[in-house]
Structures are given as structure tokens and as C-alpha cells.
Amino acid sequence: MATAADQSDPSPALPRGALVGLTAVILGAFISTLTGRLSSFGLADIRGAIHAGYDEGAWITTSMTTAQMLVTPLTIWAGTVYGPRKVLIWGATLFAAASTAIPFSTSLAQLLTFQFLAGMGSGTFIPLTLPVVLRTLPPRFWAYGIVVYALNLELSLNISASLEAWYIDNLSWRFIFWQSVPLAIAMIACLYFGLPRQPKAKTTKRPALFGVMTAGLGLALIYAGLDQGNRLNWLASGTIVGLLSAGLILLGAAVINLLLVPSDWFDLRGAVKWPLPLLLLMVLVLRLTILSTAFLIPQFLISVRGYRSLEVGQALIWIAVPQLIAAPIAALLLRRMDSRWTACVGLVAIATACWIVSQTMTAAWGPEQFLATQLLQALGQTLALSGIVFTSVLRMRTDIQATFGAMLQSARLMGGELGLAFTVTFVRMREQHASNVIGQNVVSGDPDVVGRLHQYARILAPRSGAETEPRSVGLLASTVRQAADLQSCIDGFLAIGFVSMLALIVLFILRPVPSGPATYRPFKFQFRGLRR
User: Fold this and answer.
1) Residue 338 and residue 345: Cα distance in Å, rounded?
2) Residues near 289 by Cβ (< 8 Å), separated by ≥ 6?
3) Burial level of 255, CB count in 10 A (0-12/13-18/19+)?
């Protein structure tokens, strides 16, 4: 298979205006991930502003990312026909307009409509980012472009919680949506002046719009079913069964159509050649490992320690800052060794951080106790994602860059949702199990239980009066619940560390990446994987 690394490097210097265009697409990737993560901590304020209940408001976060999934195949088709510049400018314009209008919504229906439109606009960003980076940069600069691309995906995911919490406590929930508008306007300016115009492509094959629409709709329905699964109790809900079934049927029809009908915009046969499916699976797994900081740490701080959203945001910012330092390290390693080794080092760092937390975390931990492992986690996430994406780039044909960009976006979003669904369900089940086990040892009349209740009663007596006994029982129940929540978070870290080690083993079956102008090998050693 011809690889991107085998191409010559005809352009030793960056083209004029290339940095402006690259800034635009990287900014788009940042905006897309940032806005997809926002409105989680501030969801209660948003629901209150439009008088929406809990169940109705649960669709606020789903609507945007569902729209991103819906528009992903359409983006690749439109980018192939009309060029990335025109598609991205229209997408950024739609996103900026919809984000400006969201805070003025007076009902849930209006807000969901504007959220969906904003998602359709931002959904054009990431699928076209990787193709633009690879086509604009000479191969010897690909490692740096890939690292910045991966850094944006990780950085925006982790700082969004801190930004959102700060807006809620200091400004207003409206800035959760408005903060991306200036970034979108800057992106439009960079696109207009940085990316060259491209004439409409003349194709001789059928446009295959059936595959475009069914693939997008199928992915969107599956994502919506996964996102609402925990709230509606999965297959016990007819809504979830209907969403997942319809999504799988439509996605299956799209795959059959794309395999049978030749297309200029999507080469499914080329994209599923070994080892690209395995590498896309690794991207999906990495989205799960990110939840060790994006979900488990906030879960612990809120449920066990009783932290507010602003305090949780301040804790998560520490995993974002070190990634700025880890980025040049990742680029250096990608140019100096096999990119599989870079990904392996990252996965080892993630697994080590999870194991350390699982062995040392107690109910007294605060944000400062997570600092050391967060630094290790930040380095590992950047190295792992950069190494896997760069390995994919070196393995794929140059004519499937757009196809791989769409599949990478799908794996990124679907991996995050699958990972979140797994982690939330796993933590909930482990909490129930731990609560049951601990509760079996809390028996009325047991000397230890009686002693603990008397201890609580002495503390509460000066203020509680006649209500001392029921309040003491309530404190004991709260202690049991806190211990169960702590154990469930520990089990969650262990599970994510175990998944990281499994991904590490899988990487060893890959052959060494091909060498060329995109890679530089000063060292002689390479580990050999199984030939495929």
C-alpha cells in the first residue's frame, strides 16, 4: 500500500499564508471540542433560565453533538466538491450566528434549535482539519502539525470545565455560548486570507448522496441513544431501543451503499485496510482514558468532597497547562523514534497515573493531591494521541485523507460517548455494590455502630437538642454513602488503567511505520510486530 510517508518533499518551506490557514483549522478543532464539552456544569442554570425540567434539559447537551455527528459525512462530501475553504467559512458563520442567538432563547424548543444549528456549524471543523494540515504542510513538518492538532483536542476538553465554572460564578451562563463567538470570527478571517480558493470539483461518478445522508443520520441516532442511555435505563426504554436500532440500520445501509457505489468523496475500502481500523479503535479507547480526569475526578470531588463547580474547574485546569509543555516533547519523539513507541510511552504514563490514584486515594483528597498524577496523565494523553494519529497518517494513502478525517471525527465523538456511557454505568454499578457490602456490616445494635452513633450524638448535642438521634443516623448513612462513592471512583481508575494496558498490548502487533521525509530515524533500534 502506498503511504503518505513515501511521497517526496517538494516544498521545503512553508507556503505563503499557510500558517494563517493552519491557524484557522486548528482554531476550529479547538472550538468544536470546547463547545461540545460546555454546558455540563452550567446545565442547571441554563435549565432554570428557560424553565426546563431535568428530563427535558438533558437534551441540551445531546443536541449539539448529535448535529456534529449528522453533518460529518456531509462535510467530507462538500469539502471534496466545493473545497475546505468555502465549507469551513459557511460552517463558522452558522456556528457564530447560532451561538450568539442561544442565550436569547425563551423556551427549550428555541434553545435546542439554536444548539442543533451551532452543532451543524462546528461539526464541519474537525473532519476537514487533518486533510488541510497534511496538504498544507510539507511532510517534514507533519509531526508538528499532528501534535498541535492532538493538543487542541485534549486541551480544549480539559479547560472547558474551568471556563464554564468561572462564567457561572463570575459572569453569567450566557457566556458559556458567547465565549466562542470571537474565536469563530477570528477563524473566518484566517480562512478568508489564509486558505486558497478552490474551484468546484468536476466528478464523473455519482454523488452518492444516499450514503451521505444515511451515514450521518445513522451516526446521529446512535450517538443520541448512547448519550441518553443512562438516564433512560438503556434497553428498558423504548426510546433508546428505537434510536439505536434505527441508527444501526441506517448506518448499515450507508456502509453497503459506500461499498457498492464508487464515490469520489469517500473511499471506505481504502479506509478499512489494515491497520487503520485498529488505529481508529485506539483513538476510541483513548477517549475512554481521558475520562479518568474529565469524569472521575469531578465525580469524586462533587460526590465525596462536596465541591462546587468552580472548585472542580480549578482542579481540572492543572491537566490542561502541562499539555503545552508536553506538545514539543511529543513532536520531538515523533521525529526521533517510531511513532508506536511514542504512543506506548503515553499509554504507560496514563496507566501508571490511574494505578497510583487507585492505590493512594482517600476521602480526604483534594485537588492538590491529584496534581502529580494529573501531570503524568497530561503527558500521557498528548503522547498517546499524537503517536496514534501520526502512525495512522504514515500508514494511509494520500488520497484517503478526507475519508480518514471523517472516520477520526466519528471515532473521537463516538469513543467519548461510549467511554462516558461505560464509565458512568460502571461507576454507578460499583457504587451500588460497595454500598450493599458496606451496609451489610452496619447492623443495628453492633457495638461499633452504637459507638459511632454516640460519637455523632455528642458532637450534635449542643445544637440539635431532641433531634440528635435522627441526625446521628443521617450522618452515619452519609458516611456509608461517601465510602461507597470513594470505592466506585477507585474502581473506575483501575478499569481505565486496565484498558490502557490492553491498548498497549494491541499496539505491539503493528509493523514498524515506513520511513520517509515525514520521519527521521537517528536510532537503529525498532521493535518488530507481527506482519499483516
Assistant:
1) 11
2) 347, 350, 354, 381, 384, 419, 496, 499, 500, 503
3) middle
d(CA 393, CA 373): 30
Cα 38 to Cα 298: distance, rounded to the nearest angstrom: 14
Most confident of 179-183, 318-322, 407-411, 509-513: 179-183
CA 414 to chain centre: 9
What is the model's pTM?
0.81
Q: pLDDT-based confidence at 524, cuts 50/70/90?
A: very low
Measured distance CA(334)–CA(445) in Å, rounded: 64
Cβ atoms of residues 347 and 354 within 8 Å: no
Mean confidence (pLDDT) of the chain: 79
The per-residue pLDDT for 99 is 92
Q: How far is CA 384 from the centre of its chain?
A: 14
Q: Is the peptide bond before 328 cis (omega within 30 degrees of 0)?
A: no
Asked if 62 contacts 181 with a C-beta cutoff of 8 angstroms, the reply is no
CA distance linking residue 500 with residue 347, whole number of Å: 6
Cβ–Cβ < 8 Å for 131, 271: no
Taken as a whole, the chain contains a residue count of: 532
The 3-class secondary structure across 272-309, one letter per residue, is CCCCHHHHHHHHHHHHHHHHHHHHHHHHHHHHCCCCCH
Query: What is the number of alpha carbons within 13 Å of residue 393 lying toward its C-beta?
Result: 33
Within 10 angstroms of residue 228's Cβ, the number of other Cβ atoms is: 19
Q: Which residues contact 448 (CB under 8 A, 6 or more apart)?
A: none
Query: How far out from the chain centre does Cα 356 lie?
Result: 23
Q: How many CA atoms lie within 13 A of 101 on its CB side?
A: 16
**Distance between CA 212 and CA 210 in Å, rounded?**
5
Q: Which three cell numbers stand for residue 160?
A: 472547558
* DSSP single-letter state for residue 48: H
Cβ neighbours, 10 Å, residue 524: 5
Are residues 72 and 412 in contact, defined by beta-carbon separation less than 8 angstroms?
Answer: no
Report residue 199 as a C-alpha cell.
Answer: 474551484
* Distance separating alpha carbons of residues 489 and 73, to the nearest angstrom: 37
The C-alpha cell that represents 244 in the structure block: 439505536
The amino acid at 385: L
Whether the CB-CB separation of 415 and 359 falls below 8 Å is answered with no
What is the DSSP annotation of 431-474?
HHHHHHHHHHT--TT-HHHHHHHHHHHHHHHHHHGGGHHHHHHH
